[in-house]
Amino acid sequence: MDKAAVLQVFESLSSGIRLDVFRLLVQAGRSGRVAGEIASSLDIPSTNLSFHLKTLVQSGLLTVEQEGRFQRYRANIPLMLGTIAFLTENCCAGHPEDCAELRGAIPDVDAFLPPLECSKGDSCS
Amino acid sequence: MDKAAVLQVFESLSSGIRLDVFRLLVQAGRSGRVAGEIASSLDIPSTNLSFHLKTLVQSGLLTVEQEGRFQRYRANIPLMLGTIAFLTENCCAGHPEDCAELRGAIPDVDAFLPPLECSKGDSCS
DNA sequence: TCAATACTTCAATAATTGTTGAATAATTGT
DNA sequence: ACAATTATTCAACAATTATTGAAGTATTGA
Predict the structure, then answer these.
(1) What domains does chain A contain, in order, with CATH numbers?
(2) Do A90 and B10 touch (CB under 8 A)?
């Protein structure tokens, strides 16, 4: 897995619609969903959904299989997890355990989030 | 960690420059790097780098700390890993082991990548 | 205090992405 | 064969993101 592949994965998850689609399909598991089901679940015009599905298939995060006149989409979870492996490669100069530890047990992530972003004009520092 | 936060993480890694910056800092570990070091390592104009660093800090993937006139950036690895936790929530309708298994041991991911994308006009099917 | 250094902000512009409706292709049931 | 269904492609347009150079802020060392 090279940089270009990883970049495609992130690009393909960097849209609210595509993130919703991927999550829906992760939850659907092996049975996946056909395009029309996705469109009605998420209330997205089919023409726009097609655009986003294409992006997700190109990155490899989704697979498609034809079923008569339906197209069945499924999530590719291993690719997702492998993307993290790429990011944590050669981790932590001299303290590789900083990554290793974390790969096993995923902690309470909220503690690592930054404070809420101050939006336009309001004086919070 | 909610959808908006996860989306920001993916948006902030969906640029080649930002992906390079994050990887550089993952490898740097606890010592991080100051902005100027990042700029010269990756050969990016400082004004453009600033733009990308801001994006990464806002998503939480990087932290900044002032050091005299320098700004020291560090990668936030737990946030990265937590993002995956979010994606694999409620996984795999009836077969949760599909995710659970994979969370522990990360497989040969290349096997899950799609065939090379055919670019404009060339007849490969 | 003054000049040099480190970095960021701003405004203009360039480049890329997302959305829509109309047209198209493929498949099924009658 | 025909009409209905499922989904995709295309071209126009809208919206968002990225890049640059000039100007600005803050810190340091002389």
Answers:
(1) 3-76 (1.10.10.10), 79-109 (no CATH)
(2) no
